[in-house]
Structures are given as C-alpha cells and as structure tokens.
Amino acid sequence: MVTEKLRRLSYGWLLVQGLLAAASPKRSIQLNAKLWGLAFENTDELEPKPWYVRSVRAAGIGMLAAGGVGLLLEERASEGEEAEAVEEPDEPITVETDD
Q: What is the predicted pLDDT for the residue at 84?
C-alpha cells in the first residue's frame, strides 16, 4: 500500500522534472547547479555548453516518457487488482437441479 503510493509519487516527480528539463533546459541546469553547489561559490557564473543543454533536453524527454508510462502502468495494475478481487467469489457457487 505504502510502496504503491511512493512509486506513484516518484513517477509524478519524474514527470515534473522531465517537463522542466524538456521545456527549459537552461533553467533546469541553473536550478541543479544551485542545489549541487551549496558548498561552492559562484555557481551563478557557470555557463553550460550547447551540447550539454541539448543532452539535458533529451534526458528531460526521456524522463517525461518514463514518468508517464510508469503512471499509466501503475493505474492499469491497480485496475487489474480491483477486477481480480471482484471476479473471485469467496465461496464456490453450487446449482441444484431437479432431475
């Protein structure tokens, strides 16, 4: 139960990160540099090379795809578990006939 919610939260976070990286890779790089550079000075002055910006955008598209597919698969798995619970009767069904 908890792991299902945690997986969904992780897939959602991956989707948000992918959207940020795909839509605005330079902003994503700046945000990550600030987070990584807490122990460093002058992280604002770093300028990413064009190939790195392109690779961040490509990684963002991949994260979007992975997060979206993960959420869809989690939804299908939960629907399948609900359907199995409904289809399985607790007691065997017997039918009496007058022959």
A: 62
Interatomic CA distance for residues 47 and 52, integer angstroms:
10
Amino acid type, 42: N
Residue 34 in tokens: 């600030």
CB atoms within 10 A of CB 55: 14
E strand or H helix that includes residue 77: helix 50-87
What's the token pair of residue 31? Answer: 């945000």
Enter the tokens of residue 77.
């798995």
What is the reported pTM?
0.69
Residue 42: per-residue pLDDT: 78
- Residue-level pLDDT at 1: 64
Of 65, 52, 63, 64, the C-alpha closest to 25 is: 52
- From the CA atom positions of the chain, what is the Rg in Å? 24
C-alpha to C-alpha distance for 68 and 61, rounded to whole angstroms: 11
